[in-house]
Amino acid sequence: MNQYVTGAVIKELREKNKMTQLQLAEKLGVSDKAISKWERSRGLPDITLLEPIADAFGISVTELISGNTIHNENVSANMLRSKFYVCPVCGNVIHSMGEAAIHCHGIQLVPLEAEETDEKHMIFIERIEDEYYVRIDHCMTKQHYISFMAAASSDGMQLVKLYPEGSVEARFKIRGVRRIFFYCNRDGLFSIDPVKGIDDKESGYDDSQERRELEKAADKLFG
Ligand SMILES: [Fe+2]
Q1: CB-side neighbour CA atoms (13 Å) of 181
Q2: Cα 190 to middle of ligand 1, angstroms
Q3: Which of 19, 51, 75, 129 has the highest Cβ tally under 10 A?
Q4: What is the rounded distance in angstroms from the CA atom of residue 49 to the CA atom of residue 29?
């Protein structure tokens, strides 16, 4: 984290906001030469300018100083674009509907990037009535284990915490689930479309009630 705003951050934000040095200068009531000096590390903006600079870029003073800006274009926060943050020290799991500046144990956490499952992290999904029964073939030692599983739909998130020496299984209500996530403390975050991961692919549809009705109608029509 920076201790004060840097010229590089000002330049980056100005360019991101498609502003010229002169346009920014006019907003702040300083000369464009002053901006140019800040950006070339030949000077620093006065402390009274921190708030106006942050305002000009539509960010907070904290973001300006830390250089970590948050961009959430979708303010309605789609669950399917959820981010997970895991503290490497204590294993704390934080779910966010968008980008956020999250600290745990004094560490700024980064949003995890999910990978497709691999042969060392195989997932088995079964439909049992209105639930997905999810199992992962993985060890559960204190050193290497699956620490949580989650199922995301557009309007909900089901999250199950797992513990070393425990079993690697979870049940999720199927309704609307589009993505299943799980996190290995060593190998990171994985995700899969549940329909792709399902053992019985034929039954990998989303809404059993609707399907049953369709099947009933098809039976009537086609005998
Ligand atoms: Fe692993």
Answers
A1: 26
A2: 10
A3: 19
A4: 10
Distance CA 197, CA 170 (A): 14
Of the candidates 63, 41, 39, 40, the one whose C-alpha atom is nearest the C-alpha of residue 51 is: 63
CA torsion sign, 57 to 61 to 66 to 69?
Answer: negative
Residue type, 66: S
pTM score of the predicted model: 0.69
121 C-alpha vs ligand 1 centroid, how far in Å?
6
Q: Which two tokens stand for residue 111?
A: 């949003």
pLDDT (tens digit, 9 = 90+) per residue, 63-96? 899 888 777 766 666 788 889 999 999 999 999 9
For residue 76, how far is its CA from the centre of ligand 1 (angstroms)?
34
Which of 138, 143, 200 lies closest to 170, judged by CA? 138
Instruction: DSSP for 130-187, please give it.
Output: TEEEEEEE----SSS-EEEEEEEETTEEEEEE--TTS--EEEEE-TT--EEEEEETTT
Question: Is-contact 191 150, C-beta < 8 A?
Answer: no
pLDDT tens for 112-142 read 999 999 999 999 999 999 999 999 999 999 9
Ligand 1 centre to CA of 178 (Å) is 23
Q: Are 78 and 154 in contact (CB under 8 A)?
A: yes
Beta 156-161 vs 146-153: how paired, if at all? antiparallel
Rg (CA), the chain: 24
